[in-house]
Amino acid sequence: MSDELLAKAEAAIPAEVRMISGCKDSQTSADVSNVASFQLPDPAGRAGGALTSSLLSVLYADHKAPDDDLSFQDVLLKVREILAAKNFEQIPQLSASRPVDIHMPFEIVPSDFTGERRALMIGINYVGQQGELSGCQNDVLNMKEYIMDMHGFKEENITVLLDDGSHTSPTHQNILDAYQTLVEQSQPGDCCYCHYAGHGGKLRDQDGDEADGYDETLVPLDYESAGQIRDDTLYTKLVGALKKGVTCTSVMDCCHSGSVLDLPFVFQADGESDEMAAADDFDFDPLTKLAHSLMSGNSLGEAAVHAAAEGCCQIQ
């Protein structure tokens, strides 16, 4: 990859951001009614997301065989094998703000980690609403147990948003506030983990920065009144706002999630790719403009944030 491309990536996204998504933008991601066959050690309940359950199954098995560390490629391909064996067509993928050597050992906490571990975990079942899901709350609880037991995350540094009546509600504003707090607290050397399990959607692009004409979205609990959260908003609130020297790993277990964080480098676990490559037709100009607005504090970034509240589409 050219030095110019890498320089553009670093200018637009100062932090090291990696995302595992459950599917490509054009695909949907499954909710599983019974996760028993995934052989999780202590599942929070019967239901769960197909991506989260498959990923946990692979990662727990990897920890049982410490002499045979799986690479990023191994993890994604094994997740795909599990999904395919259960007749799910979704193709998981890894995207990043910098090219990742997918043959290096998989990690959530970097080997050169020196700071604090923080996590933000969001699970929405949309209880009582049309399109109610059954496994998203369990996904968060299962993954929370994993990162605490296997990666040393502390309870006091994990923020959980669930629509279960016991945790902070995953409303539009609460989600954005939680991302902002994570960004403000995270300093160079810190490691962040973010998990979203819920509906994902697509809205018509408003600013011409999407090759397919659509923004990918997260669907908060109150989406009918507050709107969905566009990928542009996720950039201004999370991806572009994290400081240089912070490493953030995000898992997006939702439909249409392939480019929901607008990251420039992609590896698809389709059995054909053997390295991470620059995303097709990726345009850095919109992100660079947003990055400049974040640094200067002008209204362009805020305009992108407020645009997320305009309109809703069919969720999946």
UniProtKB/TrEMBL annotation:
It comes from the Eukaryota. One of its GO terms (biological process) is proteolysis. InterPro entries: Caspase-like_dom_sf, Metacaspase, Pept_C14_caspase. Residues 11-97, 117-269 form the Peptidase C14 caspase domain. GO terms for cellular component: cytoplasm. Belongs to the peptidase C14B family. This is Peptidase C14 caspase domain-containing protein. The lineage of its organism: Eukaryota, Sar, Stramenopiles, Ochrophyta, Bacillariophyta.
